[in-house]
């Protein structure tokens, strides 16, 4: 069996079927939507910061897509809680595959990193470092 | 009688011509070719994306490079003459294959998309304007849809889309409404690469010609899989790709009626397409060379003809009969599995492909899991995003069949789909 079977370990399927922090925040500091045009995956991330505006206090997401993108967003939503904005900025692809705990086949990496990209771009728009008209896409 | 006993030709003999069908998969996808970890037999059900290439065609390419590689239409030396003759005669073979009157009507292009763009640029940009319209269907591949859409934007011509019925067929009443006296071109896919629908091109051509409009059939999925004759279809243009019909990539063809091609200005300028050049002006070569600027894909063109000879040896009626048999079997077996939604007309009335979704499983997840079973299918929008919007799904899985596929391979597909469905249940 190749990489694919490993991708669908119980943890991934569990997060896909029972996504954590799925829904909406009443009063988010920022909301951002991104998509993966080639597969139609769409994720919306909402983040609320603490009073100092530096630490992530709450995260909610909604989305529509494959098991890898949805499970990754769900696991990320748990991971982001209590994280600083700088730490969010620093999350790279390796951090995501480590978080998922499985090997992601090359063609599926863009699915795995969509949630992270949406959260990072949302944060940058919130801080005025990215043009809000730039929609997040994981195709490069 | 088992389905296998109805094969219209010796399938084992055909499969022996395609050594790639024996390879195993499952190892590192960043290492091309069979290597360590490749331990699962390949079940290749993605021929609508690209077909495999038989030894006879691979040998043709090798023979060219080993034996008579030279540029065409350039030299007086023997190698150039050998290459030129073979390359030119390849046009005759393609012309015969689709019932064209001769090489004048066959322009070699990179692929179907380039053939579509050739007509869109050489004819569309010149002839279309505000008040005109081009009629497509909702099931067009992006190769036609995006091309005419953009030509429409640049010329001010309206682009209309014939609607697709719930059963995945063209709404011919709507077609009659779309095609009017302002219609200049009706450009419709012959066999849908997503729905498998075989569209009534002769009927559409008659409607178009009643309004003095031209007809362009996208034959990317039909020419490889069934007998296609431009006279029977009644089309003015037909485009198709070599790599979907046992040929190499990088070669395709545009059929155009000679009188029409004669009127069109070149789409690409440069060497090989000119007759006489001065600093002030140039004149053009005869058809089809007028449209083949620069050094063409010589080996690929010659191999394209070899692929056609291979298919003719088997017989296109037989290829179609085999496709029909596999499509109907796959449709019935996937339906019987349950939890599978199949798009397009019923199994006995479609081209050799089945696009579907499994309840609760994203097409990309399905394709990843099927890959573990060695089953290669396509997952995504199949270059028909607007059609997927109409179907109300972002993506679908597609299994497509060709002359070398077997009933056992469809059984492997259905079993793997069942496993995926159960994993996500």
Automatic annotation (TrEMBL), chain A:
Gene Ontology terms: biological process: iron-sulfur cluster assembly
Entry-linked Pfam families: NifU_N
Domain NIF system FeS cluster assembly NifU N-terminal: 7-128
InterPro entries reported for this sequence: NIF_FeS_clus_asmbl_NifU_N
Domain of life: Archaea
SUPFAM superfamilies: SufE/NifU
Molecular-function annotations in GO: iron ion binding; iron-sulfur cluster binding
NCBIfam families given in the database record: SUF_scaf_2
Full protein name: SUF system NifU family Fe-S cluster assembly protein
Species of the source: Halorubrum persicum
From TrEMBL, chain B:
EC number: 2.8.1.7
CDD domains: SufS_like
GO biological process: cysteine metabolic process
The protein's required cofactors: pyridoxal 5'-phosphate
Gene3D superfamilies: Aspartate Aminotransferase, domain 1, Type I PLP-dependent aspartate aminotransferase-like (Major domain)
Catalytic activity field: (sulfur carrier)-H + L-cysteine = (sulfur carrier)-SH + L-alanine
UniProt GO molecular function: cysteine desulfurase activity; pyridoxal phosphate binding
Domain Aminotransferase class V: 43-413
Keywords for this protein: Pyridoxal phosphate, Transferase
Family: Belongs to the class-V pyridoxal-phosphate-dependent aminotransferase family. Csd subfamily.
Chain's role: Catalyzes the removal of elemental sulfur and selenium atoms from L-cysteine, L-cystine, L-selenocysteine, and L-selenocystine to produce L-alanine.
Protein name: Cysteine desulfurase
């Amino acid at each position: 069996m190749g990489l694919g079977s490993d991708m669908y370990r119980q943890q991934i399927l569990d997060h896909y079927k029972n996504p954590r922090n799925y829904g909406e925040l009443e009063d988010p500091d920022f909301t951002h939507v991104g998509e993966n045009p080639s597969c139609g995956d769409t994720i919306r991330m909402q983040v609320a910061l603490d009073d100092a505006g530096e630490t992530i206090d709450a995260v909610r997401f909604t989305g529509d897509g494959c098991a890898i993108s949805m499970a990754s967003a769900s696991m990320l939503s748990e991971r982001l809680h209590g994280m600083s904005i700088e730490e969010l900025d620093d999350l790279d692809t390796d951090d995501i595959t480590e978080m998922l705990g499985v090997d992601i086949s090359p063609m599926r990496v863009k699915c795995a990193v969509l949630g992270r990209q949406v959260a990072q771009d949302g944060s940058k728009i919130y801080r005025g470092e990215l043009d809000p008209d730039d929609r997040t896409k994981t195709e490069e | 009688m088992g389905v296998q006993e109805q094969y219209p030709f010796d399938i084992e003999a055909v499969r022996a011509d395609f050594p790639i069908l024996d390879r195993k998969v499952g190892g590192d996808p960043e290492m091309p070719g069979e290597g360590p970890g490749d331990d699962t037999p390949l079940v290749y059900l993605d021929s609508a994306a690209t077909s495999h290439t038989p030894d006879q065609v691979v040998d043709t390419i090798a023979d060219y490079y080993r034996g008579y590689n030279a540029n065409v239409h350039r030299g007086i030396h023997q190698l150039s003459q050998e290459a030129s003759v073979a390359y030119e005669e390849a046009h005759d073979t393609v012309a015969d294959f689709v019932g064209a009157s001769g090489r004048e009507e066959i322009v070699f292009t990179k692929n179907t998309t380039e053939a579509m763009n050739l007509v869109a640029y050489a004819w569309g940009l010149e002839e279309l304007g505000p008040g005109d319209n081009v009629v497509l269907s909702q099931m067009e591949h992006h190769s036609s849809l995006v091309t005419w859409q953009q030509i429409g934007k640049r010329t001010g011509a309206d682009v209309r889309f014939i609607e697709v019925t719930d059963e995945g067929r063209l709404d011919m009443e709507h077609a009659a409404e779309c095609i009017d006296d302002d219609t200049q071109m009706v450009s419709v896919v012959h066999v849908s690469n997503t729905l498998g629908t075989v569209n009534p091109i002769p009927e559409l051509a008659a409607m178009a010609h009643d309004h003095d409009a031209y007809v362009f059939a996208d034959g990317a999925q039909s020419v490889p899989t069934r007998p296609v004759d431009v006279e029977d279809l009644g089309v003015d243009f037909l485009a198709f790709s070599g790599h979907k019909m046992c040929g190499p990539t990088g070669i395709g063809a545009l059929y155009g009626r000679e009188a029409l091609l004669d009127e069109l200005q070149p789409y690409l300028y440069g060497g090989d397409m000119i007759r006489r050049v001065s600093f002030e002006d140039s004149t053009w070569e005869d058809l089809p060379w007028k449209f083949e600027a620069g050094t063409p894909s010589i080996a690929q063109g010659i191999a394209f003809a070899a692929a056609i000879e291979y298919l003719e040896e088997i017989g296109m009626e037989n290829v179609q009969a085999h496709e029909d048999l596999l499509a109907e079997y796959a449709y019935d077996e996937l339906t019987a599995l349950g939890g599978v939604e199949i798009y397009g007309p019923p199994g006995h009335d479609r081209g050799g492909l089945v696009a579907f979704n499994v309840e609760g499983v994203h097409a990309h997840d399905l394709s990843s899991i099927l890959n573990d079973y060695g089953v290669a299918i396509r997952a995504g929008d199949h270059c028909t995003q607007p059609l997927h919007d109409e179907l109300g799904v972002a993506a679908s899985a597609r299994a497509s069949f060709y002359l070398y596929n077997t009933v056992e391979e469809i059984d492997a597909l259905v079993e793997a789909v069942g496993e995926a469905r159960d994993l996500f249940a």
